[in-house]
Every structure is written in C-alpha cells, then in structure tokens.
Amino acid sequence: MSETLLGVALDAARTNGIRYADVRVVTPQRYLNLAVRNGNASSLTSSLSSGIGVRVRTDRAWGFAGTSELTPAGARQAARDAVRLARAASRGAKRPLELTDEAGPRDGRYATPLREDPFEVSSDEVVALLTDAERRLHASADVKSGIASFQAWDETKWFRSSDGASFHSRIVQVGAGVSATAVRAGMVQTRSAPGPFGGDFSQAGFEFVRGLGLASRAEEVGKEAVQLLDAPACPTGPTTLVLGSSQLALQVHESVGHAVELDRIYGSEAAYAGTSWVAPEAIGTLAYGSAGMNIIADATEAGGMGTFGWDDEGVVAQRVPIVAAGTLVGVLTSRETAAHLGLARSGGTARADGPDRSPLIRMTNIDLQPGDRSFDELLSGVKDGVFLETNRSWSIDDKRLNFQFGTEVGHRIVNGELGGLLRNSIYAGMTPEFWRSMDAVGNASTWHLWGLPNCGKGQPSQLARVSHGAPAARFRNVSVRGG
C-alpha cells in the first residue's frame, strides 16, 4: 500500500512548473513512555500515528503538505495542496532556487540492528525494572522524590523522489534513566544518571536499557543527592575547569551543533532560538577553538540517535568534518543550502520529525573527538580548579555566542586531585573564547556517545533525536560561580 501511495502522490505532483517532488509515507510512527515515581507507576504514554508528506518545488520556491489519510485520494490531495502552495510562494520569491545534484538510493534499505524489540517487551517487565531502580534511589529520608523512566521510538518510512531515488527504513531508539531529589530545610538538590534529560539514549533495542544497569547506579545517585545538601557552593571567579563527558556533550550541542546549521548561518531559520554567530564567508578559516578541537558530524555512527541510511531528501548518510585542529572546515547542510554555498553536494542533514513536517537541517551525531590525556592527566597540574558534570540548566543567546550552564554536581580540584562536592555550580563564557581555552582533551577512556531525545527547532516546532560523543576536557580561565 505504501508503495502505491508514493506513486499516486508523485504522479499528482508532476504538473506544469514543478521541477522536483519527493514523498514520505510514515507508518507506523510509535512512541512509548513509562515512568515510576516514588514507588508508583506515574506515566504511561503510548502513541501510534501515520501519514504522508509531499514536498515540491518550482524554480523559485517550495511547497509542502501532509495528511494522515493513507488513501490514494489523500495522497493525491496532499500533492495538489503542495503544488498550490509552491506556486503561491513563487510569486514572492526574490531569486531562483537551486539544489545540489545527488545520486540518491535506488530501492535502498536501512534498519536499526535489534536484539530485543522494545515494543515487544511487556510493560509489566519494564515497570518492574523501573520500580527496582527507583526504590534504590531512596537512600535516606531526605530523598523526597525518585523517578525512573523509559522511552522508545519506532519510525518506519518509505521515500521516493521525482529524481528516481527511493528507500525504506525502520529506525528504533530507546533510553532510560533515574533521578533523585533530596530536600532539607528549604534546600533542594537533584542528582541524575546516566545523564540529564531522562538518562542516556541510543538507536538500539531494549538490550541497551538492560545494559544501563539502572538498579546498580541508583543507590549512589540517591546518596549523592543527599550529600549535595551539605556541600558548599561552587566558588566564584575565573578558574581552571574540567568538564565531564555528558556536560561537554551538551556544550557541543548548544555552542557548536546549532551554530553550524547552515540555515541558521544564512538567517533563514531564525524564528526558533535564533541564528548563528558564524558568518558564511568564515567557513574554512574561522578559528573556532584550540588545536585540540576536532569535531565530526557522523550520520553513520553505530548506535547514534542521529544515524540513518538517507536523510529526508534521499541524500546518503555521511561523516562530515566540522572543526579540524580548531578551524571551522564544514557545516550542516541541505541540498538547497549546500548549493547556495557553492558546494557540489549536500551533507545529508535534512530531516523532519514526522510526515506532517517539511525537512529542516538537523544535527546528526556531532562528536568531539578524543585526545590523548587520561582523566588523571587532565587533573594533574591543576593547583586549584573545579570539575563539573551533568547538566542542570542551560541558557545561550540567539546567536549561540554567549552562554551560561549549570550542573548538578561539582568537585574542587586541589593539587591535581578531586576534592569534595560542590553544589549549584555554574560556568559561563563566549563560544570562541571558551573553545580556544581548551588546553587538554581526554582520551577514549573518558569518551562516551550520549543520546539526546529532545532537540527543538523550527516553527511549527519539530523535535529531533541526536547524539553527541564527547570526552572529558580541560579549559583555562573560565568564569564559574555558585548559584
């Protein structure tokens, strides 16, 4: 049926003035969320949806329309609506619209490798796993709230374009985590694991959730939340800062990933969270960071939430250098923006969060490559500094330039060794100055690929799931304070 709908929509889109068309049929698109809070199942969300998205272009503008009606009549009407919108937009377009030439797939196939389909694991088994982990969070009476949660996504997609490209994919993603909140005398502290934003996530089956070992982590998480109640606040002033892997992953996301999306750089995607401090003419020469800064956008990475076979323009997944030895050498592109920049091909990063949305440039897996220092070596030589980990709050301006991040936990670094806990730690800076201050990068033993399930962009809003690989790293002369 899906193949029939692709053909019907494309046939309806092939009309006067339409230079290109592509169709996505998504069925099913499933989501599952289970959570246990304070011993009780507190959340059960299960959704199932499907639809058709049709995108067309004239020589000057795009038109897009979607429908949840999976019938030939629905497909035909969506195509006609897209054509009508493209023709209307063309009348106000100021310049011709160009795309890169791409050799798209011919009957391509991509599927997430699974050992255990998360949608076939019984909810009773998942709740039992979460209940066991959540119970262990309550290390003392000061832990007033504990939560253990699990999420899973499943999207099956058929794609075909008027260029002759076609593929079929099924992508499954999962994640889980625990969080404890301790309260005493008006003081509130929260500790999470494996990371913030609900834990850790991967393109994988339920075996990934089992491997997180939530129950074995939970007791220590609860204890540390309580210990933070008595910890001193982070000291104020410029200092040497060592960031742990999960916090540095978020730093990459906010101050690099979003800043190198080419639609933001051109200012065409400005309505949601702004543009970028990067100028188009600076690509290839801009000193983004220190010589130890090497960042790759990798849509082929095993387990990545931003991994796929082809993007939603039929462009093959790629591994694209973004920053090499501190210099900005690449950006995230679509077929249109790549052509505008004068590139021969797209980087393959145009994705939509469902059939009712048109593709936008989205991050894939944006990774800071590991360096050559062990964690102990990052600490050595630091007479007085701080180590911060696990995001608690974030703020960054609409150009991705000035930022301030708070973390759940910190430690003093005294004479090259970790000292006691610090609470309410905050660090701030400007993107290029911060990355240029990085003087040591952790090796592979400090590196982890973190899944992020809730990257927002666009109006109407779209959510993307991406991953960031990051080691620990050291930065000099960074402003920190206690909140």
Report on this model:
This protein has 483 residues and is α+β, with helices and mostly antiparallel strands. It has 2 domains: 2-213 and 225-230, PmbA/TldD superfamily (PmbA/TldD fold); 237-482, no CATH class. It is 22% helix and 40% strand. It contains 10 helices and 23 strands. The protein has helices spanning 2-13, 72-90, 123-137, 206-211, 214-230, 245-257, 262-266, 335-341, 375-379, 431-436; strands spanning 20-37, 40-57, 62-67, 108-111, 143-161, 166-184, 187-193, 200-202, 237-243, 295-298, 319-324, 327-328, 350-351, 360-361, 366-368, 384-396, 402-414, 417-422, 425-430, 438-441, 448-457, 462-470, 473-482. The strands form 5 sheets. Strands 1, 2, 3, 4, 5, 6, 7 and 8 form an 8-stranded mixed beta sheet that branches. The mean pLDDT is 97.
Outline:
With 483 residues, the chain is of the alpha+beta class. It is built from 10 helices and 23 strands.
Please describe the topology of this protein.
Blueprint: H1 2-13, E1 20-37, E2 40-57, E3 62-67, H2 72-90, E4 108-111, H3 123-137, E5 143-161, E6 166-184, E7 187-193, E8 200-202, H4 206-211, H5 214-230, E9 237-243, H6 245-257, H7 262-266, E10 295-298, E11 319-324, E12 327-328, H8 335-341, E13 350-351, E14 360-361, E15 366-368, H9 375-379, E16 384-396, E17 402-414, E18 417-422, E19 425-430, H10 431-436, E20 438-441, E21 448-457, E22 462-470, E23 473-482
Parallel strand pairs: 4-6, 9-16
Antiparallel strand pairs: 1-2, 1-5, 2-3, 5-6, 6-7, 6-8, 9-23, 10-11, 10-15, 11-12, 13-14, 16-17, 17-18, 17-19, 19-23, 20-23, 21-22
Helix pairs in contact: 1-2, 3-5
